[in-house]
Amino acid sequence: MNQELRVDPAHGATGHPGTTRSARRAVLARCRSRARVVERGADLLAEGGEAPGALWVLSGRIELRKTLADGRSVLFDMLFPVDVVHPAAVDMRSSEFEATAAETSRVALLSRDACARVERAGDGVGDLVGRLTAAGRARRSERLLRVVQGRGEERLAFLLLELALRTDARSVLAERPCRLRLPQRAMGEMVGLSTVHVCRVMTRLAERGVLRAERGGVELRDVAALAALAHAEPAALAGAILA
Length: 243
Fold this sequence. Notes:
alpha+beta; four-stranded antiparallel beta sheet; 8 helices; 11 strands; disordered N terminus
């Protein structure tokens, strides 16, 4: 599902209430004026390289990775429309991670000056950027909590629930089946599990009717059961991690 940043008459640019029409229009104008299409595998940011003020995703899927001391590159987060991330490290010049397009995507790389102008704007866009940034911190904190404390099944269930909320919140909150395009390798990296362990967990969940593995992804069939395994209430989690 290659989503596109758009204005919804009843919701904000993030697909949720709380953003004014003028702010939504301004978001679209600012992003589209600076957007470019990148192909799958394109490197957008290099860890330690020069950092822009922000990376804003309009469509597609962007992987964020960090390199360990032994040289391994580990996927720690995924960006979807309309996620925004500020990549600057503590020196405020270099990027603290690398960003790569996982599929053909449309992104906007905003300079620091452009970000400052957005924050000063009086049309609600600055507030929206702030909420999107806070949402990113919140989802990583929630996921980290499960990685530190949860068993493999809980970790994977939480990740699937989180990603489903971020890509198809309406279906999740209505407890309707939904699909995620994400390979098992990526699932494992994001929650600290091997691909073999992910495969075993998914097999168990498939036998219980919670999900069905598909090529390059998964269909979530029983959202309520998945949420129970994740020890998370979908509406409360949505309120915590979605802007």
